[in-house]
Amino acid sequence: METTQTTQPAQSTDAETSAAAGFSLHARIEEFYTARYDEVDRLSRDAVGRLEGERTREILTRFLPAAPARVLDVGGGPGVYAAWLAGLGYRVTVVEPVARHREQAAAHGTFAVEDGDARALAQADASADAVLLLGPLYHLVDPADRARALAEARRVVRPGGLIAAAFITRPAPLVDLCAQLRVNDDDVYERLRRLEETGVNDEETGFTVAHFHREAEILADFAAAGLPRPRLLGIEGPLLPLLASRLVEDRPEYVEAALRAARLAEEHPELLSISGHVLAVAQTVPHGAPDGR
Ligand SMILES: C[S@@+](CC[C@H](N)C(=O)[O-])C[C@H]1O[C@@H](n2cnc3c(N)ncnc32)[C@H](O)[C@@H]1O
Description:
By secondary structure, the chain is an alpha/beta fold.
C-alpha cells in the first residue's frame, strides 16, 4: 500500500499541497472525504456515531481547561466538535486540509477555520491552551509523520496545556466486520487476518488510508514527540459490537446502555481495544516543573 510522505515535503503532484509548509494530504484521503463519504453527520446519523460523539464530548469536558480557553482543533473536519466547543464559550480554530470540510466548518460561523496540515502548523509557539487531534493521527501511516504532528501540537500548546488525540484501535475493523457477520466471507476473513499483522487499513474492506493502533504504538507516538505518557480512555466501550452489528434496532435505551458500559470500562486495560477509538490525553509539563523548561 502506498503510504503518506515521511519527514520530507512531498514530491507528488496528484495531492493537494497544504498551505502551511508543503506537506501533502494523501490524494486518496482527499478523494474519500470529498467524493465518497460525507463526514458532516457521522456523529449523529446512527447509534454508533452518537455513542462516539457523546463519549468524546464527555471525556473532553473532563480534561479541557475552562472556557474561554483557546482550542486548536487540528483535523477538525466539518467542525462538529468545534461548534459544540464554541457554543460553550471556547475560542476555537479548526485547521483542516480538506476543502469540503473547511466549507462545512465555516458554515457554522462561530469559530475560525484555516487550511493546514497537522505536521506543519502555522500557529505560533504556546498559542493554544488545548490542541485536539481527533482524526489526523490515524490517517498518518508513517510513525515519523505522527511524531511530527504530535511535536507540532506540543509546540503550539502552552506549557501545562492539554493535548487530546484520537486513535482507531488495531482490532476495530475486526470487531466491526465480525459484528456484522461479514467474517463469514472468506475474503474478508483473510483481509482481517492480514490487518492484525500490519495495522494498515485494507481499503477493500472500507474507509481510506489509515493506521490502526495498538496501545504500545500510541505510547510510542507520544514518546517520539517528547510528550509525557498519556492517559488512554476507550471511547465507545464494550457494547460497541452490539450497536455496530445492525442486528438490533437503533433504540435510545441501547445507546444509554452502551454509554454506561463505556464509562465503566474506559480505563480497563483488557477492554481498551474493544472500543473503536481511544482518546489519549496528556498535559504538557508547565514551566518550572521538574521536567519543564
Ligand atoms: C474522521 S475525520 C474526523 C473529523 C473531526 N475531527 C471529528 O472527530 O469529527 C478525520 C479528519 O482528519 C483530517 N486529516 C487527515 N490527515 C490530516 C493531516 N495530515 N493534517 C490535518 N488533518 C488531517 C481529515 O481531513 C478529516 O477531516
